[in-house]
Amino acid sequence: MSEALPVLLLTRPRAASERFAARLRQDGLQFRAVISPLFTVEVTGPLPDVTQAQGLIFTSANGVMAWEALGGRTDLPALAVGPATARAAQAAGMQAQDGGGSAEDLIRFIIAQRPPGPLVHLHGAHVRGNIAKRLSAAGIPCRGAAIYDQPPCPLNAEARAALDGQVPVVAPVFSPRTGELLAKECAKAPLLVAAMSQAVVNALMPLHKRNLKVAERPESEAMREVVSDFLNRALAGDY
Q1: Rounded to whole angstroms, what are the CA distances from 94 to 22, 74, 90, 130, 202?
Q2: Cβ atoms of residues 227 and 170 within 8 Å
Q3: How far is it, in rounded angstroms, from Cα 172 to Cα 28?
Q4: Of 162, 187, 188, 203, whose Cβ has the fewest other Cβ atoms within 10 Å?
Q5: b/e map 76-91, b = 16+ CB within 10 Å
Q6: Whole-model pTM?
């Protein structure tokens, strides 16, 4: 019965959550999807002055979306944190390079490439990694600009009931921001968490978990591998 299937708790914005669930279903996995975004994405601006900029840095597809919505220039080279962000920048008309998958990878990539500056890091109101400061300290002028916000949303009733129940809940967590918000919740159900990175693990520390595993690579496909394993183990009662 569907009530006995493990719950896949998806807390990203709805469109991204639906894509992830659809990909898992294509793999033949069995689960009950519960979508309850823990934040929304709101474009705030202002559009920063990039007259002197020689390149743009994006650490999420949300940054690309906000930049595009604000009418930002697309003729500057883009340095993206990972493949999904690079694809979003390319879809917006920019020439983009994939920096490796994490903020640390991106910083190392930029320092090794030593592109001409100044650079502008376009990010949300909640930002980590001190990318602009660290690049500037390494001799690559860079400044940051917050162009969107991620205000929190409460869990919906279906998600709250899943966490209060007895059926295993598999929760992929893709960002430290999501991790911080999820860590404020209580979970009575067996909770199996797939984390995108060590930064996500750190944000999740207060959360009671039955099991936790970090993806081998900070990208969606690697997260899918961990989630698939957890869903199969939950179905078998081996968690």
Answers
A1: 28, 5, 5, 24, 33
A2: yes
A3: 18
A4: 188
A5: ebbbbbbbbbbebbee
A6: 0.85
Class of residue 124 by CB neighbours under 10 A (exposed 0-12, middle 13-18, buried 19+) = buried
> What does the pLDDT look like over 125-158, one tens digit per residue?
988 789 999 999 999 999 999 999 999 999 999 9
CA distance 53 to 100: 22
Sheet containing strand 211-214, strands side by side: 32-35, 7-10, 169-173, 191-195, 211-214
CA atoms of 64 and 215, how far apart (whole Å): 24
| 77 DSSP assignment | -
CATH 3.40.50.1820 fits 42-149, yes or no: no
CA 19 to chain centre: 14
Give the tens place of pLDDT for each residue, 48-106: 999 999 999 999 999 999 999 999 999 999 999 988 899 999 999 999 999 988 888 99
CATH class of the structural domain 2-40+153-236: alpha beta
